[in-house]
């Protein structure tokens, strides 16, 4: 395994961990979006962009990335970041926490199923 493949693997692990932290940092009873959730969604977006850039620049895999999938995931991730940062200061109960959880779940489902 080369250095680029190792870096790619580390970024994938970080990307998945950031999405998991985004969900785990949220309060669901009562629903509230915490600053940790906002930071984790932003970090997941940045690591996702780094992954795509690294994949485009190198031949980590034989086939290139699916640009349609990447585009859809980017839109969903951007929506999640916007919801997280605009709603993090709102007092509980904040029903947008469920919207954010759905966006994160959708992003993970697209990654797995597509």
Strand order of the largest sheet: 1-2
Low-confidence stretches: none
Count all strands and give the number: 2
Helicity range of the residues? over 70%
The biggest beta sheet reads: 2 strands, antiparallel
Number of helices: 4
What number is the mean pLDDT? 94
Order of helices and strands: HEEHHH
Molecular shape = elongated
Instruction: Please state the structural category.
Output: mainly alpha
User: Radius of gyration over alpha carbons?
Assistant: 15 Å
Strand content: under 5%
Number of domains: 2
Question: End-to-end distance, in Å?
Answer: 26 Å
Task: Report on the architecture of this protein.
With 114 residues, the chain is mainly alpha-helical. The chain folds into two domains: 1-14 and 48-65, no CATH class; 66-114. 74% of the residues lie in helices and 4% in strands. The chain is built from four helices and two strands. The chain has a two-stranded antiparallel ribbon with strand order 1-2. Strand 1 (27-28) and strand 2 form a beta hairpin. Helix 1 (3-24) runs antiparallel to helix 2, helix 2 runs antiparallel to helix 3 and helix 3 (67-87) runs antiparallel to helix 4 (96-113). The protein is elongated. The chain starts with a helix and ends with a helix. The model has no long low-confidence stretch (mean pLDDT 94).
């Amino acid at each position: 395994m080369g250095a680029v493949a190792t870096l790619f693997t580390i970024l994938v692990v970080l990307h998945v961990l950031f999405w998991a932290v985004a969900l785990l940092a949220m309060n669901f009873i009562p629903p509230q979006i915490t600053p940790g959730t906002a930071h984790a969604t932003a970090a997941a977006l940045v690591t996702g962009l780094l992954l795509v850039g690294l994949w485009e620049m190198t031949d980590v895999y034989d086939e290139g990335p699916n640009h349609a999938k990447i585009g859809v995931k980017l839109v969903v991730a951007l929506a999640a970041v916007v919801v997280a940062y605009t709603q993090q200061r709102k007092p509980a109960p904040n029903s947008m926490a469920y919207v954010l959880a759905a966006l994160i779940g959708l992003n993970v489902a697209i990654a797995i199923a597509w």
